[in-house]
Amino acid sequence: MLVYQSLNTLFTSLSSGVCCTAALSRLRQFHLYENKTLNWTDAQDFCRENYTDLVTLYNQEESEQLKQLMASNSSYKAWIGLHRKEHSLKWSNGDTVNDTAWLPLPSPSTEPMCATILKDNTTWENCTEQKNFVTESHCSLLVFRRYTHSGKWRF
Predict the structure, then answer these.
(1) Is domain 29-148 classified as CATH 3.10.129.10?
(2) How far out from the chain centre does Cα 108 lie?
(3) What's the rounded Cα separation, in Å, for the pair 83 and 79?
(4) What are phi and psi of 70, to 5 degrees?
(5) pLDDT in tens, 18-71
(6) Contact in structure between 139 and 28 (CB atoms under 8 Å)
């Protein structure tokens, strides 16, 4: 007998306070951790230990989807994967930020800054502050096929 536990089940069964889930347009889901506060680096480490990452938003549509979830479910600022390293904006997954039309830019200081979201507002904060955080996971669809003794495929 094949036993399969989907990634979605795995991520929602974490005992660390997953409270809200929504689907993103790129077959991803994000999860808001309201009951856990960490600094940005520790939040990133926590995500990676649990096979996920802080959320990356690729366009304004995804930003709006996240803001809708935050507006209805949170009264706290939460880390997203965006941070300023030296003079460039990067995502937690290492991608460089290309589309900045949907987000405010950080002040021109050289101090590391990390992005937070609160309801419909994205702001820049000191990365060492303790905040809730939003993670992403990629949705997956697995189809198991087994050849039976009768010579037929089972799906």
Answers:
(1) no
(2) 26
(3) 10
(4) -65, -40
(5) 444 444 445 567 788 888 999 999 999 999 998 889 998 877 788 888 888 787
(6) yes
In the numeric block, the tokens 């993670």 are attached to: 135
Both tokens of 18, joined, read: 């997953």
Q: What is the pTM of this model?
A: 0.69
End-to-end CA distance of the chain: 13
Domain ranges of the chain: 29-148
Is the dihedral angle over the CA atoms 69, 71, 74, 76 positive or is it negative? Answer: positive
Percent of the chain with pLDDT over 90: 25
